[in-house]
Specification:
Number of helices: 24
Strand order of the largest sheet: 4-3-6-5
Largest sheet: 4 strands, antiparallel
Distance between the termini: 39 Å
Shape: extended
């Protein structure tokens, strides 16, 4: 009667919760005690756990609901035990949050966007020319004045182009590229996926400048550029080829052509293959021994005439007509061709490229600027300047210490309430001794401002991290999932796993109730004989002797105090149901010879009939079953302690079939 009254009272208490939830887009599916679980949470975890099998059928949903309510019962118990206040668990959760936050802040807002941008670009090859203005003298470290001079020179060149001067003509006159005088700055087709690190701005110019127009001035690690775009085409991807080369010795292309023609005719002979001809006649010393195999390459690796023919071959195994390059004549065989792969296939490669490129740091800087802008960042420069003026050379030594009494002067504010003080900054400086010492050559003003910038960036990232739960529902879901997971682990460890392994009295009592579950099949007590390589000549004799004698008699006959050529180990093996081999006392295996010259054989000494296992023999299995038993008891107790109320109407709305 009391139990009925309690459940009725709990049900009446929960009615307002369900009614309120129905007014939202995320109603409560069930409650454990007074803790609600919303539809969004259940759908998230159900879909994640079941993957492609998450069909929301009646059977599937109800089965998972049963599992999830039991999970939530355990979590509720862990919270009531205040396991979430344990310092070790709090530290573990904070560490996970930092890792996950880094992923969301950097990967979601920086890396993922850059990877998608790069993938979109690698779909096209772009034909460009450029004019390069190097910064400073080759082989020297550029100074600020060199950078300014080069930039101003590039601006003057842009003015000439804006007035309509021919790009190739200007490139021949002023470009610092070594081949500009011959090529007019023409690079040819490039692909964003193949550009080296440090050329992101040039990549942007190549892919964003309209056809037959020139870009503004862009910077790369080589200097300043102006880019002109001639054409765009679908990306060629990569091709795998082999080739046969006949060099034009002393520039005699006609003689080389005659020879390559004869090799082409030889390929039509039934007895000749491309690989045989390449090995016998190709004049490429590196590839001829490998049957002409040149490898896999994309655009921009070889001369355009060679590439155009290689990519034009229409099927694997196709061989080209003779192709002329600057070094001679070639026959090219296509082995395979690979276009741009789906995003998920290319993602890992492009992500690695992005993270190693300066564009990643540029995007991170842009993200930090956005955080400051969106959250009304305001700083008190006077406070920072006063602090800088008060420092001396001690600042760059181990002697410098942050003041014991923290200054409450506000350095900057972020958001509506977050205030960061000078005391917070001096604490940061106290933790950054190594950085302070390394910046000594920069001087006090520049060093403090550099460390201040790093400090501001750190605070901005921390602030943004604190907002992730609001911005990313899946971040909030992952954090809840991890928190509840570690609580469940700790509670189960304390109340089930440890008890099962440590409660020897309870384990013995449990074993007595289920001992018939742990049985031996028929077993054989075997002697395993091992004979050294030195005793190999006697191996057959030893085996024959062992057939009618005990292990002790064998050891006594063939070993001496000075030399051991045979040893014996005893082992007991259980006969499995699918083992049809003959088992009887005295049965012996054949003599096995190993690669090192030693040998071995087995002999069945005794057969043991089927029987019950002792607790010692079955301990591991018994503990596992005892854990299951204790967990079922625990769940039953939790179901009595906490009322679980399911909103059937909401549940039925989830079911699709």
């Amino acid at each position: 009667m009391l139990k009925h009254f309690f459940l009725l009272a709990v049900g009446i208490t929960l009615l307002p919760l369900f009614a309120a939830a129905q007014k939202t887009d995320d109603p409560v599916l069930f409650t454990v005690g007074n803790t609600p679980v919303h539809v969004s949470e259940f759908k998230y975890i159900y879909s994640k756990t079941n993957g492609p099998n998450a069909d929301f059928s009646k059977k599937s949903v109800e089965e998972y609901l049963d599992l999830y309510t039991k999970f939530k019962l355990k979590v509720q118990k862990a919270k009531d035990l205040r396991l979430d206040t344990l310092p070790t668990l709090k530290s573990e959760l904070e560490g996970y949050r930092r890792q996950l936050a880094d992923s969301y802040l950097i990967d979601r807002q920086v890396t993922d966007q850059l990877v998608k941008e790069l993938y979109d670009r690698v779909q096209q090859d772009v034909d460009i020319s450029h004019i390069l203005i190097e910064i400073g003298e080759p082989g020297t470290v550029p100074q600020p004045a060199d950078t300014l001079k080069a930039y101003e020179e590039a601006l003057e060149i842009k003015k000439r182009l804006d007035k309509g001067e021919d790009f190739a003509k200007v490139a021949r006159e002023v470009s610092d590229e070594r081949q500009a005088k011959e090529t007019g700055g023409r690079i040819g087709f490039i692909n964003a996926g193949a550009l080296p690190s440090g050329f992101y701005d040039l990549e942007v110019a190549a892919y964003s400048t309209p056809l037959n127009k020139h870009s503004g001035v862009v910077r790369s690690r080589a200097g300043y550029h102006l880019v002109k775009v001639h054409a765009k085409r679908p990306a060629r991807g990569e091709v795998e080829v082999a080739h046969i080369l006949i060099r034009a010795a002393d520039g005699n292309f006609d003689a080389a052509k005659l020879k390559i023609d004869s090799l082409q005719r030889a390929l039509s002979d039934l007895g000749s293959t491309f690989e045989k001809v390449a090995m016998a006649a190709s004049e490429d010393e590196l590839t001829a021994p490998k049957e002409g195999y040149l490898g896999i390459f994309g655009i921009g690796r070889y001369e355009r005439s060679f590439e155009d023919v290689a990519f034009a071959l229409d099927k694997d195994g196709a061989v080209s007509a003779p192709v002329r390059t600057s070094i001679g004549w070639h026959l090219i065989k296509r082995i395979s061709q690979r276009g741009i792969q789906p995003f998920e296939t290319e993602k890992a490669r492009l992500e690695n490229k992005v993270k190693q490129d300066p564009r990643h740091e540029q995007a991170r800087t842009a993200m930090l600027e956005r955080i400051r802008r969106e959250n009304n960042f305001k700083e008190n420069t006077a406070v920072l300047q006063q602090f800088i003026a008060a420092q001396n050379d001690t600042f760059f030594t181990f002697k410098w210490r942050a003041p014991e009494v923290k200054s409450e002067e506000v350095l900057f504010t972020l958001g509506t309430t977050a205030k960061t003080t000078l005391g917070d900054f001096t604490d940061y400086l106290g933790r950054s001794t190594g950085k302070r010492i390394r910046l000594q050559e920069e001087g006090t003003d520049k060093a403090v401002r550099s460390l201040y910038k790093e400090f501001v960036d750190e605070i901005c990232l921390q602030f943004e991290e604190s907002q992730l739960d609001k911005k990313y529902p899946d971040f909030k879901a992952l954090m809840r999932e991890y928190e509840e997971g570690i609580l469940l682990f700790e509670a189960t460890k304390n109340l089930v796993w440890d008890k099962a392994s440590q409660d020897s009295v309870g384990l013995e009592k449990f074993y007595e109730t289920v001992r018939n579950n742990y049985k031996w099949e028929e077993r054989a007590v075997m002697s395993n004989y091992k004979i050294t390589a030195e005793g190999r000549a006697q191996a057959s004799e030893i085996r024959e002797y062992a057939q009618t004698h005990t292990p002790q008699e064998v050891l006594q006959k063939y070993n001496t105090p000075e030399k051991t050529i045979v040893s014996v180990d005893e082992k007991t093996m259980e006969r499995k149901n699918n083992n049809n081999a003959s088992w009887r006392a005295g049965e012996m295996s054949i003599l096995q010879i190993t690669r090192d010259g030693s040998s071995n054989f087995n002999k069945i000494e005794e057969l043991l009939p089927p029987g019950l296992k002792t607790l010692k023999e079955a301990r591991g299995y018994v503990i596992a079953d005892y854990q299951d038993y204790l967990e079922k008891q625990w769940i039953a107790a939790l179901q009595k302690q906490y009322a679980v109320k399911v909103n059937e109407k909401v549940l039925n709305g989830l079911i699709k079939a």
